[in-house]
Amino acid sequence: MPAPGDAVLERMVGFGRVLREAGLEVGPGRLQDALRGLEVVGLAHREDVFHALRCTLVARHDDLDAFDAAFAAYWERAGRTPAPEIGLEVPRFEPDSAPAPSAAEGEGGGDDGGEELTLLLAASPDERLRRRDFADMTAAELGRLRRLMERLPKAVPMRRSRRLRAARAGDALDARRTLRRAMRTDGLPFDPAYRSRKRVPRKLVFLCDVSGSMEPYARAMVMFLQAVIASGRHVEAFAFGTRITRLTPHLRKLDPARALAATGGLMPDWGGGTRIGESLRHYNDTWGRRGLTRGATVVVVSDGWERGDLRELDTELGRIARQAHRLIWVNPLKGRDGFAPLAGGMRIALRHSDEFVEGHNLVALEALADVISR
C-alpha cells in the first residue's frame, strides 16, 4: 500500500502537468518548492494549500487566473470535465504493464494467433515508450529511451556540391571523356559523356533551450542531440538558457552517461531563466560570424518563452533565417491538445521559421529526423 506522501507526490506531478498545459512555467524545481510549502502549512485547510501552491508555482501576475482555474479543475472537481475555455484535463495515470490477453483470445487464435500475440506483447513496452511524453517519463524510462534513440533514422540534410562527378546524364558535358570515346568512332562524338554535381552532407546546427520551462524535455533532447552528432561530422549542437554553450565536443564522447554528465556540468543555467534573443545574439556574433550558419539547416528547440527583449529576438532570428538554408523550430508543447502559439517569442519565431514541428515524444523526433533529411 503506498504511503500518504507518495499519493501527494503523484497528485502534485499531475497538477504540474496540468499547469504546463495551461501555459505556466512549472518545472521539477518549483514542484519541490511547492511540496516544501505543503509540509509547512499542512493539508487540513483548503485556503492554506491554495495559497502555498499559488506562491510557489506562479511566477507571473498574468498566470494567476490560469492557476486559479487549474486549481479548481484539478483539486476541487476531479473526475469532471474542466471548463472548455481553459483546455485543462485531469491526468490519468496509465499502468506501464501491457494488458493480459483474455481467455477467448488465447484459445481461439491457434498457433499463428498465439505467436502474433506474443510478438505484439513483446513489442508493446517500447511502442508505448515511443509515444510517451518526455515530461511524464521516469528516470528508468529515460534510460530505456537512450537505447531507442540509437535506432533513430539519420538526420542528414544533403546539398548539391560544386564539385562534379562522372554520370550517365548530368548538367555538364565531360569534354575529356567525350573526346576519348570519339577516338573509337573516327573522331565523331556519337557517345557523349556527362558530369553531374555531387551530393554532400549539409551543415546541421542545433540550438536547444534548457531553461526552466523546457526542463522536462531538455534531458531527452540532449540525448537526441548526441544520437544525431554520432551520425555525422557536419553537426554542431548548442544549449542556451540565459547564455549559450557549445556542446559538440562533449557529446562526441562514446559513453552516453559520461557525455550527459559533462554537458550538465557545462551549463550552470540549466533549469533557469530564458533569454533567447540574447543567447542567439551571442551565437551570431561568435559562431555565425565564422560562417557556421551560412547554408546550414538550423534547428531551434524551444517553447518560445522569452524573458528578454522581443525586438532583439526578432532581429537575431532574422539574421539566422537570412544566412541559413532552412530554419526549423521545434516546440515540445505543440504535441499537446489545445496548443496555441500565444507566447510572444513563439509568434516571432513563426514569422522566421520554414518548418514548425512538435518534439514531445520519440515518434515526434522520428518525424523531425525525416523533416531535417527531406
Sum this structure up briefly:
The protein has 374 residues and is of the alpha/beta class. Helices cover 48% and strands 13% of the residues. It has helices at 4-21, 28-41, 46-57, 64-76, 103-108, 110-131, 139-149, 175-182, 215-229, 248-251, 256-266, 276-286, 310-323, 344-352, 362-373; strands at 158-167, 172-173, 194-201, 204-209, 235-240, 244-246, 297-301, 326-330, 355-357.
Describe, in plain words, how this protein is organized in 3D.
The protein is α/β, with parallel strands linked by helices and 374 residues long. It has three domains: 4-76, no CATH class; 161-200, no CATH class; 204-373, von Willebrand factor, type A domain (Rossmann fold), CATH 3.40.50. Helix content is 48%, strand content 13%. The chain has a six-stranded mixed sheet, with helices on both faces. A three-stranded antiparallel sheet has the order 1-3-2. Strand 8, helix 14 (344-352) and strand 9 form a beta-alpha-beta unit. Helix 2 (28-41) runs antiparallel to helix 3 and helix 13 (310-323) packs parallel to helix 14. The chain is elongated. Residues 78-123 have low confidence and may be disordered.
How are strands sequenced across the largest beta sheet? 6-5-4-7-8-9
Radius of gyration: 26 Å
Could you give the distance between the termini? Answer: 51 Å
Number of helices: 15
Give the CATH level 1 class of the largest domain: Alpha Beta
Structural class by SSE content = alpha/beta
CATH homologous superfamily assignment of the largest domain: von Willebrand factor, type A domain
Total discrete domains: 3
Mean pLDDT: 78
What are the segments in which pLDDT stays under 50 over at least 5 consecutive residues?
78-123
CATH architecture of the largest domain: 3-Layer(aba) Sandwich
Largest beta-sheet characterization: 6 strands, mixed
CATH topology term of the largest domain: Rossmann fold
